[in-house]
Amino acid sequence: MSKKLPIQKNDYLENAYIEDLTHEGNGVTKIEGYPLFVPNTLPGENANIKVVKTGKNFGFGKLIELNEESKERQDPPCPIYHECGGCQIQHMTYEGQLRTKEKHVREVMKRIGKLEDVTVHPTMGMERPWHYRNKAQVPVGEKDGRFVAGFYQKRSHEIIDMDNCPIQYEKNDEVIQHVKAICQRFGIQPYDETNHTGTLRHIMTRTAYETNEVMVVLVTRTPKLPHKERIVEELVKGIDGLKSIVQNVNSQKTNVIMGDQTEVLWGEEVIYDFIGDIKFAISARSFYQVNPEQTRVLYEKALEYAEIGPDHTVIDAYCGIGTISLFLAQKAKKVYGVEIVPQAIEDAKNNARLNGMENVEFEVGAAEVVIPKWYEEGIRADVLVVDPPRKGCDEALLNTILAMKPEKVVYVSCNPSTLARDLRILEDGGYKTLEVQPVDMFPQTMHVEAVARIELRTE
Ligand code: SAH
Known about the structure:
This protein has helices at about 80-85, 95-110, 170-185, 230-240, 290-305, 325-330, 340-355, 365-375, 395-405, 415-430; strands at about 10-15, 20, 25-30, 35-40, 45-55, 60-70, 120, 135-145, 145-150, 160, 200-205, 215-220, 240-250, 260-265, 270-275, 280-285, 315, 335-340, 360-365, 385, 410-415, 430-440, 450-455. The chain is of the alpha/beta class. The chain folds into three domains: about 10-70, CATH 2.40.50.140; about 100-125 and about 290-455, 3-Layer(aba) Sandwich (Rossmann fold), CATH 3.40.50; about 135-275, CATH 2.40.50.1070. The chain has an eight-stranded mixed sheet, with helices on both faces. It has a seven-stranded mixed sheet with strand order 10-9-8-11-12-13-14, with helices on one face. A hairpin with a 2-residue loop joins strand 15 (about 270-275) and strand 16. Helix 2 packs parallel to helix 10 (about 415-430). It is flat, with a radius of gyration of 24 Å. The model has no long low-confidence stretch (mean pLDDT about 95). S-adenosyl-L-homocysteine binds near residues 289, 318, 319 and 387.
């Protein structure tokens, strides 16, 4: 028989104490050990809560009344914060957010990594933690007969119209509003997800941080875009800094935003941006960090930890379009980069050429396959940098690191839990984690990025 839960749906709890914050940004209160997640609450708060859902291991509650507020509470500046779901902790002061992220990293280092005494530094934050995103992509649809473009409502596919987003570059908001108005004026049919009809699916725009160059991408269901020339003409007239207009065709019934077919409608195929001294060409489909200001902070930290000298051979695993590789290549003798997406490697090679760097080599493939192959071919790295996706490094890669024994490993991570898990494997294989630096790439959200400095033990 299943155990009886200490609370039931629709129960009203008075004076519940919020003791923690989940990685999704929900407050946690416990009733006889049973965790109840309560959105829009913060640790240290005392609240009256209505139970809205109970599962076997945890439940969800709704905040009804706050009896005691956290000192870290603030009014979320975004008027649609609670509907959107893009941000999770706008109701917390920025200092509180930075401390939460540091605490989160420290906690998983202990719990998952069994690294009791590793130094976790205070999170490096932004001076102005707003308007930091260089890329906006908004779904287009129809609501009550009106053309709308904005965001999907939390846990639904309903599009809510939006005219500005406080974490976007203001320029992107401006561009989106302009594109919206023009498409509306020319009677472009918004995409209908249910019936798979209509023309315009998404509007995407990217503004380069250092150069202010702008790209607009119109994602359409069909190659045909009515009034194409007139639309282009109006966009060119109305957007300062515009360098590229691209149409991308996605005819599939899918949640994936872009399709395979892209056509330049006006201007260049790419826009250019700089991170530090390095220039990048960014096409409509390129992966490019969305917060370039903090990306620079992150990469400089990675470079500092790598302590690269002019004789060093470096491997950059999960290199994307070569951003970290090119940073490292400024100081190293030779850098090898590996990445699984062929288009990203194309971009990486172009970026190396663009910066006149000849000491880098890129290869397409899985890091856990290519790096063991390099090892067999006799390639030895003095420094190895990894920057894997959320699931962390493949075990085969970690084993190759343990065999190759680079003196230094720098681990850039977007998921502290898998970082901690992988650090434990490296520790057991003869490495020591010296320090971990969290960097805030995504203010107002619960995402945490961290860099770890790891060294081969000498004894
Ligand atoms: N270092 C880059 C990209 C990091 S994102 C930057 O800072 O911009 C992680 C990258 O790992 C993505 O580009 C993804 O395509 C790639 N990737 C995912 N699995 C991989 C694997 N098994 N081997 C190599 N690359 C992989």
